[in-house]
């Protein structure tokens, strides 16, 4: 699926960094979106109120999740929707397949759903002889390239228009070398319209589900979810159980935060509210756990269930921006992914909590106030306690701790370090032994150490 | 045990501290001139808004829109203005594939984000909001003032909404768009290539 087969973040990031120009481009593309988000957040004086309300509503919902799930099911049923429950990814995929079989469906259009990605629905359906077309432009691009999305909101953010042009030339017969985004988008529009017209069933994700009305809300800019489910008779909506909110009124809070945090827009172009199937049609809603209920038990990590998948934490993360989404080898990358993935599968994703500078920027931008960097720090301790850390990380820590306990030795080594930084030839400082010197300059050694300055100052004060 | 029971049991058996819901009555943003703000935000997201006098004004304004004048297949769900395709005579929504322009009723507008609330109450096939090349949304202002059909922010908007059975409703803000190719904004991804909002006095 993903282009990175390895789970080791540093190795994958290293590969991404081999193309320095592209790394810089990726970095600035995401920073540009982060800046748009900042401008948007400042356009509303109540921004912080919205964030704390959102966080509180989510915390409240999680504290009574079982009741809300039951309420939602009852109300959705009353409106004629068919509600399914899936413990895990396999069961979710099987439910989808059963519905498709019942309708003898062969062609499916899907709109961006990270949950179906998480469940690896596409390969499963393809194995069963069903054509699945992702209809979000970015998703379609990565699907044609047989890659996974590298970002949860902008799935093809790692690609340049030349890459897209090549992909479309290969698969959609577009003009070779025509890199014009308008031309390429238009070609995809025509290609996907055919797919919409032929589809037997439309599958969407769910942004929010409303306990008090039994409705679901789907947000897109392209209108792909809506086209996908208003032509065929059957709509399958796949949602994680954490997507629930108590009441339709609460949507005002979340819709005001979501697009502003995600792309710096005041709202997505289409925010569609589905309440039951349309006349003569079927609406299936699949409620999926797949590890979510495990998170609830932990005071440390429960907050991660508040996530509304806006992607703001990725756009701001200095590590994500310089290592690319694929380096995380996971459906959800970036800060929130570095929490969710190791909690689900510690063995494979143990390097992710370390793909973090603990700068706290993710926590600052998160619209639902998830304490991302604190959780990442806690996770690190856990990885260490489980003895999953490589010696390259534990050994220097042990040595550092030994040195820090011996102040005289520390001071002496500091002096030596400064001397070496100043006087050693480059090749002895910048080499494989010094990971800090990779792709960056070491700091200049100050002429006086802090200790020397402090001692001088103390002396001066005394003599006054 | 069914998966439902399994999930409910594992969700219920947890010690999660209880948290109260916040009050939704807060001082949400108000605009000195909501109509002007709506127009500015809509322009920024690629749409246009105009205020017209009555149905005649609407017809005049449409006559100035090349995408309306050039449209071969049109749908109108606005009383007093005819399209050349009658939605009531169409049973299969696929037949609407090549509609060029659809004129549809909006219920009210939101100044904060230039969204217009549209439902399928008066639109037989809801795909007609998404499949035409161009869409015009018409907001009738019964009191003769735009202020009657506009609210300041989404919090006020949801206060106005009620949820009927099998209803489909959508906040539409501008034409369909994408920035998936190198972050260049392209208008007209899958849905409408242009969105025009008419406030009819
Ligand atoms: S953790 Fe917060 S910032 Fe990151 S995607 Fe989730 S809601 Fe957005």
From TrEMBL, chain A:
Any single biological process term in GO: lactate metabolic process
Keywords noted in UniProt: 4Fe-4S, Electron transport, Iron, Iron-sulfur, Metal-binding, Repeat, Transport
GO molecular function: 4 iron, 4 sulfur cluster binding; metal ion binding
Domain of life per record: Bacteria
Compositional bias per record (Basic residues), positions renumbered to this chain: 454-464
Domain 4Fe-4S ferredoxin-type per the UniProt entry, residue ranges: 298-327, 347-375
Region (Disordered): 441-464
Presence of the UniProt keyword Metal-binding in the record: yes
Protein name listed in UniProt: 4Fe-4S ferredoxin
Natural source organism: Blastopirellula marina
TrEMBL record, chain B:
Top-level taxonomic group: Bacteria
Pfam assignment, any one: LUD_dom
Domain LUD residues, every copy: 94-200
Annotated transmembrane regions: none
SUPFAM superfamilies (UniProt xref): NagB/RpiA/CoA transferase-like
This protein's name: LUD domain-containing protein
